[in-house]
Amino acid sequence: MRVSARADYAIRAAAELAAAESSLTTEALASAQAMPRKFLEGILSVLRREGIVVAQRGLGGGYRLARSPRDITLADIVRAVDGPLVFVRGERPSQLSYGGAADDLLTVWVALRASVRGVLESVTVADLASGSLPPEIAALVADEAAWENP
């Protein structure tokens, strides 16, 4: 599974907004997370359309989260910028069917989607911004093998 730059930047921007005490400009967000400003502008536009952030114009304007960071999961953000969490050949696993020796592959793809959903829906922007991830996330990375690329 790959996480797009759009999803990575969107989550990082949301974490910065959660940690901020007031609205932040695109420039401030881009600078805080070392992201390309123009690319971030497009991401923020999508997040605004999807109801994750709100924009305020004028002096003191910028972006802020549209609701409490405790109510925004990382899954919400990924879905907003990239669509469904897991695609196989551009389709949702539930739309696929296999036969023969690959018949159980559908079960594997659905299990993958459930696993990804379980992680991304259990972490909120508030968790990320506060550095207080849920215990189930810590348990997943406690094994050193989780950090290795075989």
From TrEMBL:
Organism annotation: Demequina capsici
SUPFAM superfamilies noted in UniProt: Winged helix' DNA-binding domain
Listed Gene3D superfamilies: Winged helix-like DNA-binding domain superfamily/Winged helix DNA-binding domain (1.10.10.10)
InterPro entries listed in its UniProt record: TR_Rrf2-type_CS, Tscrpt_reg_Rrf2, WH-like_DNA-bd_sf, WH_DNA-bd_sf
Presence of keyword Cytoplasm: no
Keyword entries, A-Z: DNA-binding
Protein name in UniProt: Rrf2 family transcriptional regulator
Pfam families: Rrf2
One example GO MF annotation: DNA-binding transcription factor activity
GO cellular component: cytosol
